[in-house]
Amino acid sequence: MGNQQNGPDRLSARTKWRMRAVEILYEAESRDTEPSKVLAERASRAFADPEAPRLPAYAEELVRGVAQHLGELDAIIGASAKGWAVERIAAVDRNVMRVALYEIRHVPDVDTPVAIKEAMRVALQIGSSDDTSFVNAVLDKAARADKPQERAEDKPRESIEDKPREEADDTAE
Q1: What is the pLDDT of residues 37-82, one digit of tens each?
Q2: For the residues 131-135, what does the mean pLDDT come to?
Q3: Interior/surface letters 77-112, b for 16+ CB within 10 angstroms, e for the rest
Q4: CA–CA distance from 108 to each of 55, 114, 124 (Å)?
Q5: C-alpha distances in Å from residue 28, one per residue of 47, 101, 127
Q6: Which of 1, 19, 113, 119 could form a disulfide bond with 100, CB atoms 3.0-4.6 angstroms apart?
């Protein structure tokens, strides 16, 4: 699973939390159940067994956020993955992209380049292949498309005083 530098022991806590969120989303999808049900099962297990791993709050926030905005996130993935239907994308990669897009769109303290870089790390660790370029390309396109375009009414208007004297004379007729 990756080389020594990129192994799971060298990942930041937040990267590991993202991986946990992707794993739960993947589990829910593969079992055809709601992510909230998987979260409840994990919480129940953790309550019953003090040795069972606890789900970090941020991982749970990501799972709940993705579940709440699933239609929106899948529409963005579909629009950004030209030639690919969302359901045809490998399930782990699809959930990596969902988590990253949720962070980009709905978590104000995560910058877009950070969300994409973290998605690449998660995809490299648990994704469908060692080539993360597809995930990167889709997220990059989605992030660029998500930035608000400068609207015409936001642009400063050019007044007659802004034009050179010759042009101003031509328009004053």
Answers
A1: 999 999 988 889 888 888 999 999 999 999 999 999 999 999 999 8
A2: 90
A3: bbebbeeeebeebeebbbbbbbbbbbbbbbeeebeb
A4: 22, 12, 25
A5: 20, 19, 17
A6: 119
For the record, the structure tokens of 104 come out as 């980009």
What letter represents residue 144's amino acid?
Answer: R
Residue 97's pLDDT band, with cuts at 50, 70 and 90, is very high
Q: Which range has the top average pLDDT, 13-17, 154-158, 163-167?
A: 13-17
Are the C-beta atoms of residues 98 and 74 closer than 8 Å to each other? yes
Q: How far apart are CA 2 and CA 6, in angstroms?
A: 6
Report the C-alpha gap between 161 and 113 in whole angstroms: 41
Q: Helices 91-106 and 112-126, interaxial angle, to 10°?
A: 160
